[in-house]
Amino acid sequence: MTDTTCPGGLGSIGGRAVARIGYGAMQLGDAGSPDDAVAVLRRAVELGINHLDTASFYGGGTVSTLIRQALRPYRDDLVIVSKVGAVHVPDGPAPLAAAQKPAELRAAVEADLKQLGLEQIPVVNLRRLDLGPGLRAARDQLVGIDDQLAEMTALRDEGKIGAIGLSAVPADTVRHALPAGITCVQNAYSVLDRSQEDTLRLCAEEGVAWVPFFPLGSAFPGFPSVTANPSVRTVAERIGATPAQVGLAWLLAHSPNTLLIAGTRSVTHLEDNAAAGAIQLDAEALATLDPIGTVPADNTVHQHGAEPHLLEND
Hints:
Elements lengths: L9 E4 L2 E4 L3 E2 L9 H13 L4 E3 L8 H10 L7 E6 L1 E3 L7 E3 L3 H15 L6 E5 L17 H13 L6 E4 L3 H7 L4 E5 L10 H10 L2 E2 L19 H10 L3 H12 L12 H9 L7 H7 L25
Parallel strand pairs: 3-4, 4-5, 5-8, 8-9, 9-10, 10-11
Antiparallel strand pairs: 1-2, 6-7
């Protein structure tokens, strides 16, 4: 794979080269039919997307099973990234429950190996519950990061996972975990919600991939809609792009260690997301977009000289 054959150019995760625009598969659990989900996954690969994000708890394993159905035998360059730390609870008050204990992390990896039909999952993210949205740890689910990392490291040593990532963690937790060999961090982040700018900067300094979820906002409170923002819409109209493409392109331009995994159930939206990798935001666009987010003091990661590219909509 070269940077001219993949959406958004080349990035790296788990020691593997990937397109900077990937695909987050969570929404496939609500796809209209298995055939529709398979069509989206196969189109993603046709577009040159080779970074797929899933989890054993997405649809109780349905999503990972669809990936297996659609794409196995897998291409050698395909990098499937999963996550552990929760469990599917279809009949509960919410569809998910915390599963933070080391034994639960191991059980989730074992389940994903079977669902995906893999001998090794290239990257597995430890989904902590330190940050929102959604689940928060309580009672016996308040598990120390060192105990969790010990289990994740054991799984890596056994060859069941290739590399370890983190999700929903502040900068201090990332810094503490770095000696375990962290390859990526997934946190909520967008051009409007930049509360995790310090974590992004740490990842950039340490060569850790930054994989933002909710890159265009969310229905969860506190995650504003990027596509509804007047400044984003003004830039989109001027350059002939969609507001979603502008939001994604800004993320790629903002820091070169960013990998996007925007999710969708639509082939058309998938193609639009992939096309965002070809958008080069000019100085006028960046001057309009840079000030609109909430950024902690003394935390900036401006690297607009790097080639922009991007992605994830978990």
